[in-house]
Design a protein that fits this description.
Layout (H helix, E strand, L loop, with lengths): L8 H9 L3 H23 L2 H17 L9 H29 L9 H6 L3 E3 L4 E3 L21 E10 L6 E4 L3 E2 L2 E6 L2 E6 L5 E3 L7 E10 L3 H4 L34 E2 L4 E4 L2
Antiparallel strand pairs: 1-2, 3-9, 4-8, 4-11, 5-10, 6-7, 6-9
Helix pairs in contact: 1-2, 2-3, 2-4, 3-4
Amino acid sequence: MNRYQEQTDVELIASLRGGDNHAFAEIYHRYWKKLLAIAYHHSKDKIIGEEIVQEVFIGLWNRRNELYIDHVSAYLATAVKLSVFKQYVRQKRRNEIKEQTADPLLTSWDEEKIYSRFLEAVTQGWSIVKPQPLQLGDWNKQGLPLYGNGVTYTKTFIAGTPAKSYAVELGKWKGTVAAVKVNDLFAGVITAEPNTLAIGEFVRKGTNKIEVTVIGSLKNVLGPFYNKPAPGLVDPGKWYNIKTQPPGNEYDLYEYGLTDDYEIKVAQ
């Protein structure tokens, strides 16, 4: 047993105010299971519950210099409940946006409009701005710097001879994977060079719909955003010693998106 395990909550908070990351770790280990149970009870969603607990502990660390807490358990439980309520409000707003955006021209990017805020960099962090249609290019330059799900790029083409071999060939793109659907049927994925996927078996004579969904990652959603982290390496230190929230354009973000349009190739 280390000395932190023997300390009271009040003693741990006092150490935390001094920037003691070991005290923070002990508070986390002491309460994370209880907070996760509270978050799940109110949200009925394990993933959302985990995200809320993470947000609460990040907030605890970021506000450590301001904390004077007598009852840590009650403080953290209240913070989780408030976060669940905020999540409910955000979800309600998403549903309202969904009902207001039935324009068929937006069908290729409705997922982003529903599940993400459009942002622009400001002096500290980001400011919410009006949604805009996505174009070819990096998402973080089009108002979606903290987005990590998928964007679907749709086009149609006319096939005169279905017996020929057809393939989707991507241009320049950035993402973890690109999923391809033909006429609403899943055809496969593209992960690396040569960036092509045979789709002949899904093509029919006449008009065909092709959907390429580029998937980002949770790096731009969860971070770390500070202290110039090495790619693929994450530890608590990447969130320490941040005196103030930096400008949005100084966040460490990955570029995702379809930069060049894809083509439908026909074998000769």
